[in-house]
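quick one
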Amino acid sequence: MIKYKLTCKDCDNSFDSWFSSSDEYEKLKKKNFLNCDNCNSLNVEKTLMSPSVFTSKSNIKINAEEKKYQVVKKKMLEYQKFIKNNFSNVGENFAYRARSIHYENKKISKGIYGSATKEELKELKEEGIETEMIPWIKDSTN
Ligand SMILES: [Zn+2]
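structure w/ zinc ion:
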């Protein structure tokens, strides 16, 4: 059984309702069987799930979400590793180094990566220096 908190968009009433599964909620919603216990409006939506979840089935679902996150995180860490191996870390000198490569037509064997402020990136872009922002996970093992 899953308990959902439902809110009515018409009268702001919120109430709890039990469903055998999240599929059942979707089914009832589609069939317009879900209505507000205050004004009978069909304009009800589920809000955050109450923490009362009893089936092992929903635990599996939570684990699946967690797994998905872990997979993404692993991919990002692999990507970071690739960058670390193939690009030179210039740290906070990123904007300066990017400019010097661009304007002095420096031939570089490796690309660079580092940190830059949003303002710096904007300026670089205006000067026609293309950079790419990537999400970066602080890797404590490194
Ligand atoms: Zn209502």
